[in-house]
TrEMBL record:
Domain of life, per lineage: Bacteria
Name the record gives this protein: DUF5615 family PIN-like protein
Chain ranges of the DUF5615 domain: 5-116
InterPro entries, per database record: DUF5615
Amino acid sequence: MSSIRLFIDEDSMDQRFIKALRARGVDVITVAEVETISSSDKEQLILATELQRVFYTFNVGDFCQLHSIYIEEKRIHAGIIISSQDYSIGEQMRRVLNLMANKSAENMVNQLIFLSAYADEI
């Protein structure tokens, strides 16, 4: 089973969050690093899937809709994690690590996961 590799959306790419994840060995890239900031949500999800990376975002509405379209059209994406902007950097990081301890990249295919389901464990 492969570890989840993340592709962080423009709205979620706080550098403190990225550094905290990388310091814990998480494979992370951002839309800024691949220079796709101006791309549509659809294009971002396509790229994340091509790169075999789970997309991480705060954008509930658009990505829930995209996920539904993918399922309806029997298309495949590498997974979507939706987080809350209300979480601190540390809380986001701990919840992501908890999710990663419980799911593999293979388990994430075509999954829409709300980070709220992964309690902030201390």
